[in-house]
Amino acid sequence: MEAAAAINVYPFHRTKTIHLVRHAQGFHNLNEDLDSLLSEEFFDARLTPVGWKQVDTLRKHVQSRGISKKIELVITSPMSRTIETAVGTFGGEEHSDDLNVPPLMVENAGGNNRPAISSLNCPPVLAIEDCRELIGVLPNVRRRSISEYRPLYPAIDFSMIEHDEDVFWKPDVFETEDEITARGLKFFKWLLTRKEKEIAVVTHSAFLIFSMLHFGNDCDLFIQSEIRGSFANAELRSIVLIDRSRIGSDSSNNFPGGIPRGLDLPVDIAIKKNPEFQKRLKSLVK
């Protein structure tokens, strides 16, 4: 019984594989001085040249491990650095005007000096407000208007973002730890309602830290460190999200057994003939 306490089992259809990715290096990551970060120079910071090299390396990793073929949906925070990381890592090859599909990213989007990225043969990319960075005060966590993003990233789905302008960012108030944590838990519960079984989420450091702090309480300290440890730029960490409260509605692949149904001798008959065993069994499955 002690050995069993260290492990657990869950129905497969109550789980999802989530690939958590922190964005690659942005220009704001080059400056650790808080006063300097208050400069508008870092507004919605884009990826540095080193950041794009990190994206190229991560792309090779997800392709060599077969991860990119399994992912059914890519979710990104609606910030330039996360969008660039998402399309660079999980998007198609270079876009051509001959293709009858819109690009995920146009050539030289926002002056990034990168070729256009195709939306062909890659999972859909969905922008979600709930997985943004800690909001407030710093210009690097204030997003652009959605109408500015759309021409640069034509194939990204921004339909779930309600406001064109950033109505959540405040110049003098940071989001509290409780608020970002609640936002994170709300986001992960929402993931359970999605039909996709394998999802990539491209997001930010503080969002990941405060969200992950509330998972893994029943795990060994080493496992907790794997779940809760801070993320490096362009780090990918794969987790299994478990639905223990029937939040989602995934259908089961379980098979009910032989047809027609009947007693599977000799165990079923033994149970049927032993009232004490039936009583014990019922107490165990309550």
Automatic annotation (TrEMBL):
Belongs to the phosphoglycerate mutase family. GO terms for cellular component: cytoplasm. CDD domains: HP_PGM_like. InterPro entries: His_Pase_superF_clade-1, His_PPase_superfam, PGM_Phosphatase. The gene is LOC111008026. This is Phosphoglycerate mutase-like protein 1. It comes from Momordica charantia. It holds the Pfam family His_Phos_1. It comes from the Eukaryota. GO terms for molecular function: phosphatase activity. SUPFAM superfamilies: Phosphoglycerate mutase-like (SSF53254).
